[in-house]
Amino acid sequence: MKKMKFFVAIGLLTLFSLLHFSFREIAYTSSGLPIDSLRSLYEKPIAQWPKPNLDSGVKWQEFKALPEIDSKKYFATMESAEVVLGKNLFFDPILSGSNQISCSSCHSPQTSWADKLNVSIGHDHASGNRNTPSLLNVKERKTFFWDGRATTLEDQVKSPIEAHNEMAMNLKELPVKLNKIKAYKNLVKAAYGTEQISFDHVAKALASFQRTLTSRRSRFDRFLDGEYKQLTDQEVEGLHLFRTKARCVNCHNGQYFTDEQFHNIGLTYYKRKFEDLGRYNITKDPSDVGKFRTPSLRDVMNTSPWMHNGMFDNITGLVNIYNSGMQMNTATAAQKAADPLYPITDPLMKKLNLTKEEIQAVVAFLESITATQYKMRRPEQLPRD
Q1: pLDDT in tens, 60-90
Q2: 254, exposed or middle or buried, with CB in 10 Å at 0-12, 13-18, 19+?
Q3: Which domain of life does this protein belong to (predicted)?
Q4: Which of 54, 128, 277, 297 has its CA 20 to 30 A from that of 144?
Q5: Yes or no: is domain 71-210 CATH 1.10.760.10?
Protein backbone atom coordinates (compact mmCIF):
# COMPACT_ATOMS: atom_id res chain seq x y z
CA MET A 1 0.00 0.00 0.00
CA LYS A 2 2.85 2.42 0.86
CA LYS A 3 4.52 1.61 -2.46
CA MET A 4 1.27 2.32 -4.33
CA LYS A 5 0.86 5.68 -2.56
CA PHE A 6 4.44 6.53 -3.46
CA PHE A 7 3.87 5.86 -7.16
CA VAL A 8 0.59 7.80 -7.11
CA ALA A 9 2.37 10.76 -5.53
CA ILE A 10 5.12 10.60 -8.14
CA GLY A 11 2.54 10.42 -10.89
CA LEU A 12 0.63 13.44 -9.57
CA LEU A 13 3.84 15.42 -9.21
CA THR A 14 4.83 14.60 -12.80
CA LEU A 15 1.37 15.54 -14.07
CA PHE A 16 1.50 18.82 -12.15
CA SER A 17 4.92 19.63 -13.63
CA LEU A 18 3.69 18.92 -17.15
CA LEU A 19 0.59 21.04 -16.66
CA HIS A 20 2.68 23.86 -15.19
CA PHE A 21 5.08 23.77 -18.14
CA SER A 22 2.21 23.78 -20.63
CA PHE A 23 0.52 26.68 -18.85
CA ARG A 24 3.73 28.71 -18.83
CA GLU A 25 4.33 27.98 -22.51
CA ILE A 26 0.79 29.01 -23.50
CA ALA A 27 1.04 32.21 -21.44
CA TYR A 28 4.15 33.35 -23.23
CA THR A 29 2.97 32.27 -26.65
CA SER A 30 0.29 34.97 -26.43
CA SER A 31 3.08 37.59 -26.49
CA GLY A 32 5.23 35.89 -29.07
CA LEU A 33 7.37 32.94 -28.02
CA PRO A 34 8.20 31.11 -24.79
CA ILE A 35 10.87 32.98 -22.87
CA ASP A 36 13.07 29.88 -22.96
CA SER A 37 13.07 30.09 -26.76
CA LEU A 38 13.67 33.81 -27.07
CA ARG A 39 17.33 33.67 -26.17
CA SER A 40 18.00 31.10 -28.86
CA LEU A 41 16.39 33.48 -31.38
CA TYR A 42 18.17 36.64 -30.28
CA GLU A 43 21.55 35.20 -29.30
CA LYS A 44 22.49 35.25 -32.97
CA PRO A 45 23.84 37.91 -35.35
CA ILE A 46 21.16 40.54 -35.81
CA ALA A 47 20.69 39.64 -39.48
CA GLN A 48 19.27 36.31 -38.30
CA TRP A 49 16.79 37.78 -35.81
CA PRO A 50 13.05 37.40 -36.36
CA LYS A 51 11.71 40.22 -38.50
CA PRO A 52 9.75 42.84 -36.54
CA ASN A 53 6.01 43.29 -36.90
CA LEU A 54 5.63 46.49 -38.90
CA ASP A 55 2.60 48.28 -40.29
CA SER A 56 2.27 48.53 -44.04
CA GLY A 57 4.27 51.41 -45.49
CA VAL A 58 6.55 51.88 -42.48
CA LYS A 59 10.13 52.61 -43.47
CA TRP A 60 12.51 51.28 -40.90
CA GLN A 61 16.13 50.39 -40.23
CA GLU A 62 17.43 47.51 -38.15
CA PHE A 63 19.11 48.22 -34.83
CA LYS A 64 22.84 48.84 -34.94
CA ALA A 65 25.40 49.01 -32.16
CA LEU A 66 27.29 52.19 -31.43
CA PRO A 67 31.00 51.81 -32.16
CA GLU A 68 33.70 51.83 -29.53
CA ILE A 69 34.98 55.36 -28.95
CA ASP A 70 38.42 56.03 -30.36
CA SER A 71 39.84 57.91 -27.37
CA LYS A 72 42.79 59.33 -29.28
CA LYS A 73 40.55 60.72 -32.02
CA TYR A 74 37.99 62.00 -29.50
CA PHE A 75 40.49 63.99 -27.45
CA ALA A 76 42.11 65.36 -30.59
CA THR A 77 38.69 66.63 -31.67
CA MET A 78 38.00 68.16 -28.26
CA GLU A 79 41.32 70.03 -28.43
CA SER A 80 40.70 71.45 -31.90
CA ALA A 81 40.45 75.25 -32.01
CA GLU A 82 36.85 75.32 -33.27
CA VAL A 83 35.57 72.89 -30.63
CA VAL A 84 37.45 74.70 -27.83
CA LEU A 85 35.80 77.95 -28.92
CA GLY A 86 32.40 76.27 -29.15
CA LYS A 87 32.70 74.69 -25.70
CA ASN A 88 33.55 78.02 -24.09
CA LEU A 89 30.62 79.70 -25.82
CA PHE A 90 28.27 76.86 -24.85
CA PHE A 91 28.98 77.27 -21.14
CA ASP A 92 29.23 81.07 -21.18
CA PRO A 93 26.23 83.11 -19.93
CA ILE A 94 27.56 86.08 -21.86
CA LEU A 95 25.55 84.74 -24.80
CA SER A 96 22.35 85.84 -23.04
CA GLY A 97 20.92 89.32 -22.72
CA SER A 98 21.09 89.12 -18.92
CA ASN A 99 24.57 87.55 -18.80
CA GLN A 100 23.00 84.91 -16.56
CA ILE A 101 21.87 82.13 -18.91
CA SER A 102 24.11 79.87 -20.97
CA CYS A 103 23.27 77.05 -23.38
CA SER A 104 24.24 74.71 -20.54
CA SER A 105 21.52 76.18 -18.32
CA CYS A 106 19.05 73.98 -20.20
CA HIS A 107 21.49 71.43 -21.66
CA SER A 108 23.59 70.38 -18.70
CA PRO A 109 26.26 67.67 -18.83
CA GLN A 110 25.07 66.59 -15.38
CA THR A 111 21.62 65.67 -16.71
CA SER A 112 22.42 64.03 -20.05
CA TRP A 113 22.45 67.39 -21.83
CA ALA A 114 18.84 68.22 -20.93
CA ASP A 115 17.51 69.90 -17.77
CA LYS A 116 15.14 67.46 -15.99
CA LEU A 117 12.36 70.08 -16.08
CA ASN A 118 8.92 69.64 -17.63
CA VAL A 119 9.49 72.72 -19.79
CA SER A 120 12.46 75.04 -20.08
CA ILE A 121 12.87 78.10 -17.85
CA GLY A 122 14.61 81.08 -19.41
CA HIS A 123 14.99 84.86 -19.29
CA ASP A 124 13.19 86.50 -16.35
CA HIS A 125 12.18 82.98 -15.26
CA ALA A 126 9.79 82.76 -18.20
CA SER A 127 8.52 79.27 -18.93
CA GLY A 128 8.59 77.74 -22.37
CA ASN A 129 5.86 75.40 -23.49
CA ARG A 130 8.03 72.45 -24.50
CA ASN A 131 10.42 70.03 -22.88
CA THR A 132 14.15 70.53 -23.44
CA PRO A 133 15.44 67.74 -25.71
CA SER A 134 18.76 66.12 -24.88
CA LEU A 135 21.64 67.08 -27.18
CA LEU A 136 23.08 63.56 -27.14
CA ASN A 137 23.76 62.38 -30.69
CA VAL A 138 22.39 65.66 -32.05
CA LYS A 139 24.80 65.45 -34.98
CA GLU A 140 22.72 62.51 -36.27
CA ARG A 141 19.44 64.43 -36.38
CA LYS A 142 17.95 65.43 -39.71
CA THR A 143 15.77 68.17 -38.21
CA PHE A 144 15.87 70.05 -34.93
CA PHE A 145 13.38 71.12 -32.27
CA TRP A 146 10.20 69.18 -31.60
CA ASP A 147 8.58 70.73 -34.68
CA GLY A 148 11.57 70.37 -37.03
CA ARG A 149 11.83 74.07 -37.78
CA ALA A 150 15.61 73.96 -38.27
CA THR A 151 17.50 71.66 -40.61
CA THR A 152 21.10 72.36 -39.58
CA LEU A 153 22.81 72.70 -36.21
CA GLU A 154 24.16 76.10 -37.25
CA ASP A 155 20.61 77.32 -37.89
CA GLN A 156 19.33 75.66 -34.73
CA VAL A 157 21.49 77.72 -32.37
CA LYS A 158 19.84 81.01 -33.36
CA SER A 159 16.41 80.31 -31.92
CA PRO A 160 17.25 79.77 -28.22
CA ILE A 161 19.77 82.65 -28.18
CA GLU A 162 17.29 85.24 -29.43
CA ALA A 163 14.03 83.84 -27.98
CA HIS A 164 12.54 86.26 -25.43
CA ASN A 165 11.73 83.43 -23.02
CA GLU A 166 15.10 81.71 -23.37
CA MET A 167 18.37 83.68 -23.67
CA ALA A 168 16.86 86.95 -24.96
CA MET A 169 19.96 88.13 -26.83
CA ASN A 170 19.88 90.28 -29.95
CA LEU A 171 21.86 88.37 -32.58
CA LYS A 172 23.37 91.58 -34.01
CA GLU A 173 24.50 92.77 -30.60
CA LEU A 174 26.14 89.51 -29.54
CA PRO A 175 29.22 89.84 -31.80
CA VAL A 176 29.70 93.40 -30.52
CA LYS A 177 29.73 92.09 -26.96
CA LEU A 178 32.18 89.28 -27.78
CA ASN A 179 34.51 91.52 -29.78
CA LYS A 180 35.21 93.47 -26.58
CA ILE A 181 36.85 90.39 -25.05
CA LYS A 182 40.42 89.84 -26.21
CA ALA A 183 40.43 86.18 -25.15
CA TYR A 184 37.50 85.44 -27.44
CA LYS A 185 39.14 87.29 -30.32
CA ASN A 186 42.19 85.06 -29.86
CA LEU A 187 40.04 81.90 -29.84
CA VAL A 188 38.24 82.97 -33.00
CA LYS A 189 41.54 83.75 -34.71
CA ALA A 190 42.83 80.27 -33.84
CA ALA A 191 39.66 78.68 -35.22
CA TYR A 192 38.89 80.85 -38.24
CA GLY A 193 41.94 82.99 -38.96
CA THR A 194 40.40 86.34 -38.07
CA GLU A 195 39.96 88.32 -34.85
CA GLN A 196 36.74 89.96 -36.02
CA ILE A 197 33.96 87.87 -34.45
CA SER A 198 30.70 87.43 -36.36
CA PHE A 199 27.56 85.54 -35.39
CA ASP A 200 28.43 83.05 -38.10
CA HIS A 201 31.54 82.17 -36.08
CA VAL A 202 29.42 81.70 -32.97
CA ALA A 203 26.96 79.42 -34.78
CA LYS A 204 29.67 77.31 -36.41
CA ALA A 205 31.62 76.87 -33.19
CA LEU A 206 28.56 75.97 -31.12
CA ALA A 207 27.49 73.44 -33.76
CA SER A 208 30.98 71.97 -33.86
CA PHE A 209 30.99 71.47 -30.09
CA GLN A 210 27.51 69.94 -30.04
CA ARG A 211 28.59 67.36 -32.62
CA THR A 212 30.94 65.92 -30.00
CA LEU A 213 28.05 65.04 -27.66
CA THR A 214 27.42 61.34 -28.20
CA SER A 215 26.01 58.45 -26.21
CA ARG A 216 28.33 55.92 -24.65
CA ARG A 217 27.82 52.25 -25.48
CA SER A 218 25.03 50.57 -23.53
CA ARG A 219 24.61 46.97 -22.46
CA PHE A 220 22.38 46.51 -25.49
CA ASP A 221 25.22 47.59 -27.78
CA ARG A 222 27.43 44.93 -26.24
CA PHE A 223 24.61 42.40 -26.62
CA LEU A 224 24.43 43.25 -30.32
CA ASP A 225 28.16 42.59 -30.54
CA GLY A 226 27.76 39.08 -29.15
CA GLU A 227 28.06 39.60 -25.39
CA TYR A 228 24.76 37.85 -24.80
CA LYS A 229 24.98 37.74 -21.00
CA GLN A 230 24.62 41.54 -20.98
CA LEU A 231 20.79 41.24 -21.11
CA THR A 232 18.62 39.43 -18.58
CA ASP A 233 15.78 37.13 -19.63
CA GLN A 234 13.33 39.92 -18.85
CA GLU A 235 15.25 42.38 -21.03
CA VAL A 236 15.39 39.90 -23.91
CA GLU A 237 11.63 39.48 -23.61
CA GLY A 238 11.31 43.28 -23.61
CA LEU A 239 13.43 43.45 -26.77
CA HIS A 240 11.11 40.95 -28.46
CA LEU A 241 7.99 42.83 -27.33
CA PHE A 242 9.51 46.14 -28.47
CA ARG A 243 9.81 44.63 -31.96
CA THR A 244 6.44 42.86 -32.00
CA LYS A 245 3.41 43.20 -29.74
CA ALA A 246 4.36 46.58 -28.22
CA ARG A 247 4.81 48.04 -31.75
CA CYS A 248 7.56 50.43 -30.60
CA VAL A 249 9.80 49.60 -33.56
CA ASN A 250 7.33 51.20 -36.00
CA CYS A 251 8.74 54.58 -34.94
CA HIS A 252 11.78 53.80 -32.78
CA ASN A 253 14.23 51.93 -34.97
CA GLY A 254 17.73 52.15 -36.40
CA GLN A 255 20.96 52.89 -34.57
CA TYR A 256 19.39 55.78 -32.63
CA PHE A 257 15.88 54.37 -32.09
CA THR A 258 14.07 57.03 -34.12
CA ASP A 259 12.54 57.16 -37.59
CA GLU A 260 13.28 60.92 -37.77
CA GLN A 261 9.63 61.45 -38.73
CA PHE A 262 6.77 63.47 -37.24
CA HIS A 263 3.71 61.87 -35.65
CA ASN A 264 0.59 62.94 -33.79
CA ILE A 265 0.45 60.43 -30.95
CA GLY A 266 -2.66 61.95 -29.36
CA LEU A 267 -1.20 64.59 -27.04
CA THR A 268 -2.30 67.71 -28.94
CA TYR A 269 -4.78 68.88 -26.27
CA TYR A 270 -6.68 70.59 -29.05
CA LYS A 271 -8.65 73.64 -27.84
CA ARG A 272 -7.57 72.93 -24.26
CA LYS A 273 -5.18 74.51 -21.80
CA PHE A 274 -2.09 72.68 -23.07
CA GLU A 275 -2.86 72.96 -26.77
CA ASP A 276 0.20 72.71 -29.02
CA LEU A 277 -0.30 72.25 -32.77
CA GLY A 278 3.28 71.12 -33.25
CA ARG A 279 4.65 70.91 -36.78
CA TYR A 280 1.54 72.63 -38.18
CA ASN A 281 2.85 75.90 -36.74
CA ILE A 282 5.79 75.58 -39.15
CA THR A 283 4.22 74.07 -42.29
CA LYS A 284 0.60 75.33 -41.99
CA ASP A 285 -0.41 71.97 -43.44
CA PRO A 286 -3.58 70.71 -41.63
CA SER A 287 -2.25 67.15 -41.85
CA ASP A 288 0.64 68.22 -39.57
CA VAL A 289 -1.57 69.34 -36.67
CA GLY A 290 -0.27 67.81 -33.46
CA LYS A 291 2.75 66.16 -35.03
CA PHE A 292 6.09 66.14 -33.22
CA ARG A 293 9.46 64.67 -34.09
CA THR A 294 10.11 61.12 -32.89
CA PRO A 295 12.76 61.43 -30.17
CA SER A 296 15.69 59.08 -29.98
CA LEU A 297 15.42 56.50 -27.22
CA ARG A 298 19.17 56.33 -26.70
CA ASP A 299 19.76 56.93 -22.95
CA VAL A 300 16.01 57.35 -22.51
CA MET A 301 16.04 56.57 -18.78
CA ASN A 302 18.43 59.50 -18.22
CA THR A 303 16.31 62.08 -20.06
CA SER A 304 13.07 62.26 -18.11
CA PRO A 305 10.54 63.85 -18.05
CA TRP A 306 9.33 62.74 -21.45
CA MET A 307 7.18 63.93 -24.36
CA HIS A 308 7.15 67.32 -26.05
CA ASN A 309 5.44 68.88 -23.02
CA GLY A 310 7.39 66.97 -20.36
CA MET A 311 4.18 65.77 -18.75
CA PHE A 312 5.34 62.23 -17.97
CA ASP A 313 8.03 61.43 -15.42
CA ASN A 314 7.17 57.77 -14.80
CA ILE A 315 8.21 55.40 -17.56
CA THR A 316 5.77 52.66 -16.56
CA GLY A 317 2.92 55.14 -16.65
CA LEU A 318 4.10 56.33 -20.04
CA VAL A 319 4.11 52.79 -21.47
CA ASN A 320 0.62 52.36 -20.00
CA ILE A 321 -0.53 55.41 -21.97
CA TYR A 322 0.75 53.83 -25.19
CA ASN A 323 -0.88 50.57 -24.13
CA SER A 324 -4.25 52.35 -24.13
CA GLY A 325 -3.98 53.11 -27.84
CA MET A 326 -3.78 56.91 -27.53
CA GLN A 327 -7.02 57.44 -29.44
CA MET A 328 -8.83 59.51 -26.82
CA ASN A 329 -8.30 62.84 -28.61
CA THR A 330 -8.62 61.87 -32.27
CA ALA A 331 -11.21 63.51 -34.53
CA THR A 332 -14.38 61.82 -35.66
CA ALA A 333 -15.38 62.21 -39.31
CA ALA A 334 -17.98 64.82 -38.33
CA GLN A 335 -15.47 66.80 -36.25
CA LYS A 336 -12.92 66.78 -39.06
CA ALA A 337 -15.51 67.92 -41.58
CA ALA A 338 -16.56 70.79 -39.34
CA ASP A 339 -12.99 71.77 -38.41
CA PRO A 340 -10.13 70.86 -40.81
CA LEU A 341 -7.60 71.51 -38.05
CA TYR A 342 -9.13 69.01 -35.64
CA PRO A 343 -6.25 66.54 -35.14
CA ILE A 344 -6.32 62.90 -36.15
CA THR A 345 -4.13 60.59 -34.09
CA ASP A 346 -1.62 58.62 -36.14
CA PRO A 347 -3.07 55.20 -37.11
CA LEU A 348 0.16 53.66 -35.82
CA MET A 349 -1.28 54.23 -32.36
CA LYS A 350 -3.29 51.11 -31.50
CA LYS A 351 -4.39 49.41 -28.31
CA LEU A 352 -1.61 47.00 -27.36
CA ASN A 353 -3.17 44.75 -24.71
CA LEU A 354 0.14 44.37 -22.92
CA THR A 355 -0.02 42.63 -19.57
CA LYS A 356 1.55 44.13 -16.45
CA GLU A 357 4.45 41.70 -16.78
CA GLU A 358 4.97 42.60 -20.45
CA ILE A 359 5.04 46.31 -19.62
CA GLN A 360 7.70 45.60 -17.00
CA ALA A 361 9.72 43.71 -19.63
CA VAL A 362 9.54 46.64 -22.08
CA VAL A 363 10.69 49.03 -19.34
CA ALA A 364 13.54 46.66 -18.50
CA PHE A 365 14.63 46.73 -22.15
CA LEU A 366 14.62 50.55 -22.10
CA GLU A 367 17.01 50.32 -19.15
CA SER A 368 19.34 48.17 -21.23
CA ILE A 369 19.63 50.79 -24.01
CA THR A 370 20.53 53.48 -21.46
CA ALA A 371 24.27 53.91 -21.02
CA THR A 372 26.32 55.27 -18.15
CA GLN A 373 26.41 59.06 -18.31
CA TYR A 374 29.57 60.89 -19.28
CA LYS A 375 29.51 64.10 -17.26
CA MET A 376 31.79 66.42 -19.18
CA ARG A 377 33.65 68.98 -17.10
CA ARG A 378 32.72 72.60 -17.56
CA PRO A 379 35.50 75.06 -18.47
CA GLU A 380 37.38 75.99 -15.29
CA GLN A 381 37.66 79.60 -16.43
CA LEU A 382 35.71 81.39 -19.16
CA PRO A 383 37.38 83.87 -21.58
CA ARG A 384 37.22 87.29 -19.93
CA ASP A 385 40.47 89.20 -20.42
Answers
A1: 999 999 999 999 999 999 999 999 999 999 9
A2: middle
A3: Bacteria
A4: 54
A5: yes
